[in-house]
TrEMBL record, chains A, B:
Short name of one Pfam family: DNA_pol3_beta_2
Cellular compartment(s): Cytoplasm
This protein's name: Beta sliding clamp
Function: Confers DNA tethering and processivity to DNA polymerases and other proteins. Acts as a clamp, forming a ring around DNA (a reaction catalyzed by the clamp-loading complex) which diffuses in an ATP-independent manner freely and bidirectionally along dsDNA. Initially characterized for its ability to contact the catalytic subunit of DNA polymerase III (Pol III), a complex, multichain enzyme responsible for most of the replicative synthesis in bacteria; Pol III exhibits 3'-5' exonuclease proofreading activity.
Principal subcellular localisation of the protein: cytoplasm
Quaternary structure annotation from Swiss-Prot or TrEMBL: Forms a ring-shaped head-to-tail homodimer around DNA.
Gene Ontology MF terms: DNA-directed DNA polymerase activity
Residue ranges annotated for the DNA polymerase III beta sliding clamp central domain, each copy included: 137-251
Family to which this protein belongs: Belongs to the beta sliding clamp family.
Length: 378, 378
């Protein structure tokens, strides 16, 4: 194996596949990056068994030569060292050559590294996925729906299924739901599919977060192929394969209240900042809660109190309040996380009493829904 | 106590005095910020007993009103909460008022915080320093000399005196020396004093670092007053008081070799980058060393080797090499830290054999000197 490559392109691709690589693997070869060189270009692979990422660097792009292939072949190199080295090489071009006994030479300017490689034949084979049924989402929309749901997954392994995001595809509609059983985030979008298949899968939250970090904001799309226990995301020069979580995701639709007792419309940013301030005196408190009370004349009061430190009270004007008077307590953390992913300057909160879950949505947009369980303090 | 203040100025001053405040103090009131209000303005104080910082916010500056004093007085407020709160207040003006029983109200827009304060009379008195003998250094020069020396102080408490920087004042010259006994950093500057006093003190490295972070890059100066066990730094609206380290600082002048066997001139940046690359394969090695060897034709070779990972070799052209051939090993960390604070594009390294300390200086500038002990590997 021997090739010369533009350093910046190599650095970018290595950083992408590094997202799948962890040093805490029980399979030593998975701490490496697999590099395969063919006449077409260079393919880099990283994997931790749960997530596998393949990044392809074509020989040529838009008429510019990116890789000069001198000899095909492959090698596995320690990911951490390889990544650190190429980032610091002195010139724009890098030559990588495998000599006998897997010894790999990395040359750039007057600098020559000699790394001990591993046999690429010993690298685990990625599962093959037949690409029959698939649907596509634009990169930026994909990143948005992930951002609007993935923060609500559970971080506890007591119910592993809740560490994933539930994706349901039905009638050209994708519904994404995440919940840690204290709050729930839901986002619906229209998709275009080439088949009428229905899916109900649970994708690990970590997989969606990592893929979001790799995808650029361009107008490219992600093609999504779902199988029994894997999901494959394909973007330009990139394959991202994740295992699915096994088990039945709870039926969350019954959690969402269908009627309400108090409804208000508030400026999203003002409300977020007010909760943020109130949380300062809530974080050390026993309950870590912020209170919301309705007042006269469409005003609401946000307050919190930690006796040993102090208390905070502030009033906000809401655009409208309808229904019963209300005093309710909730976690400022859950509220702020939900508000931060809402799109739209105004939002609608619908309460069903102080003990029941309430829902938050942008006004005039029911494709996003955030649900929070209140904290009992009265 | 009651006053109205521009929020940005308050935030800046609070952040400055916060640098002296630690939550790990044994004196509970020192987790607070002391706020004293007089007809002249507002004085904030933070202290951890070792370092004390006072920041003064004048009532008026350049004709603009900064503070409106309604009633003089004082209070001590929990620093962490106070700092977090004022940063997030909704409007540009903040009103702070102490009501009965040390209860303190912070108002901004529709937001009202109520904090439990402490009695300012119970806050420790700062040592008073009579300002007889002093000298001055421009802010930017002060920050430079600190940056060029403080990285070399010891981080180990086995010889506490080495955790400080030795400042010697003699004949209008200030010499700053720091060493952890493996390397040494020295910087000399001319100063102007109003007296012929001589000083030989050791200032805790932490004090110098923190003060450097507070001083702005303006053309202001720091006035320095030295007493038996304290040093006072005065800058515009700022008092920074630090205890001195007790004990005798080792006589370091005898460590610096006065003649050499090999001398070379190298491009500072090229050399730094080369050491940086070589250090990638040195960090996990048993010795954590990089080797330097002289070659023919004014070339040098930088290399390192960790058998289980790999090795790196690269050649650099030096501008000149004089004297004996040399093979020497040293810590890449110490070398890089020394090179990063050298000013000048070219530097001079003077070696006195593979087992002796060597010195690094910018060419044509002997006001800076970096000394490193080699590592024995041959």
């Amino acid at each position: 194996m021997r090739f010369i490559i533009q350093r910046d392109r190599l650095v970018q691709s290595v950083q992408d596949v590094m997202r799948a690589i962890t040093s805490r693997t029980t399979i030593p070869i998975l701490t490496g990056i697999k590099i395969m060189v063919t006449e077409e270009g260079v393919t880099l692979t990283g994997s931790d068994s749960d997530i596998s990422i393949e990044s392809f660097i074509p020989k040529e792009e838009d008429g510019n030569e990116i890789v000069e292939v001198i000899e095909s072949g492959g090698i596995v190199l320690q990911a951490r060292f390889f990544n650190d080295i190429i980032k610091k090489l002195p010139t724009d071009l890098v030559e990588i050559q495998v000599s006998n006994h897997l010894q790999t030479i990395i040359r750039s300017g007057q600098s020559e590294f000699n790394l001990n490689g591993l046999d690429p034949d010993e690298y685990p084979h990625l599962p093959q996925i037949t690409e029959g049924n698939m649907f596509s989402i634009a990169n930026d929309l994909f990143k948005t729906i992930v951002r609007q749901t993935v923060f609500a997954v559970s971080t506890s392994e007591t119910r592993p299924i809740l560490t994933g995001v539930n994706w349901q595809v039905e009638n050209d509609k994708l519904t994404c739901v995440a919940t840690d059983s204290y709050r729930l985030a839901m986002r619906k979008i229209q998709i275009e599919t080439n088949n009428p298949a229905e899916y109900n899968i649970v994708i690990p939250g970590k997989s969606l977060s990592e893929l979001s970090k790799i995808l650029d904001d361009s107008k490219e799309t992600v093609d999504i192929v779902i199988t029994d226990n894997q999901v494959l995301f394909k973007s330009k020069n990139l394959l991202f394969l994740s295992r699915l979580l096994e088990g039945n995701y709870p039926n969350t639709s019954q959690l969402i209240p269908t009627h309400n007792k108090t409804e208000m419309i508030i400026d999203t940013k003002e409300f977020l900042q007010s909760i943020d301030r109130a949380s300062l005196l809530a974080r050390d408190g026993q309950n870590n809660v912020v209170k919301l009370s309705t007042l006269e004349n469409n005003h609401i009061e946000i307050s919190s109190n930690t006796p040993e430190i102090g208390k905070v009270i502030e009033q906000l004007k809401s655009k409208s309040i309808e229904g019963e008077d209300l005093k309710i307590s909730f976690s400022p953390k859950y509220m702020m996380e939900a508000l931060k992913v809402l799109e739209g300057t105004e939002m609608n909160i619908k309460f069903t009493g102080a003990m029941s879950p309430f829902i938050i949505q942008p006004t005039n947009d029911d494709s996003i829904l955030q649900l929070i369980l209140p904290v009992r303090t009265y």
